[in-house]
Amino acid sequence: MSVGIVFPGHRPRGHIVLHQRLARHPAVIYTLAEAGEILFADATALHWAHGLEAMAGDGAALVIGGVAVARALIAGGLRPAAVAGIEFGALSAAVVSGMIAFADAIELARFGGTQAFPVRQLRAPAIPFVGTIRGSHADADRRPTTARLSEMATRLRDLGVTTAIEVVPGHRFTDLVERSFPDLSAIAITRAGLRAALRKTTEPAPPMLSAGGASVSAAL
């Protein structure tokens, strides 16, 4: 199975970026602490139901939440074959791919707007990247969101991705894949949860043998 991580880059009405269950994951706690230092904000406040959006703004909250959940997936054993995103999600994807620093992505989300992200240091991605950042600026892509999500799904499929995990918030990309891409599957964290997404996309840990030869579960 070849798995990609998708960052939708928008927050549906009524959704928060990180629910409390996700916010308790060690990788998420670490990421929120790192974001707190970048924003000169109380990291504890970022864990509140609407604290992340209130402290960072919607754009930066999407970047922070996306990176946090991706790190939790990777900590759980996922090895993404590609990352993809549009709008603010492109910044999350660029951070996870190694193209830009987390601090720069937050700054760009807060001050760069959604149409043009000036990137100061753009590195070659360690993980294949599908997104809107090209060269030193993001393309001002004004096509409908559905068209851009569809193109993203096509490009992931062309890279050999068979399953895409859509990080928080929402499930718009997953809905599109279910309707229009029968040869690609998608899992929305908002619906399935982190553990279920990992169970479906990672290999189980091999059993260890005890001294008596009995099989026991490997500690995670």
Q: What would you say this structure looks like, in words?
A:
This protein is an alpha/beta fold and 220 residues long. The chain has a single domain (3-216), classed as Malonyl-Coenzyme A Acyl Carrier Protein, domain 2 (3-Layer(aba) Sandwich), CATH 3.40.366. The chain is 44% helix and 12% strand. It contains 10 helices and 9 strands. The strands form 3 sheets. The chain has a 5-stranded parallel sheet with strand order 3-2-1-6-7, with helices on both faces. It has a two-stranded antiparallel sheet with strand order 4-5. Strands 8-9 form a two-stranded antiparallel ribbon. Helix 4 (58-75) packs antiparallel against helix 6. It is globular and about 45 Å long. The two termini are 22 Å apart. Mean pLDDT is 80; it is low at 134-139 and 214-220.
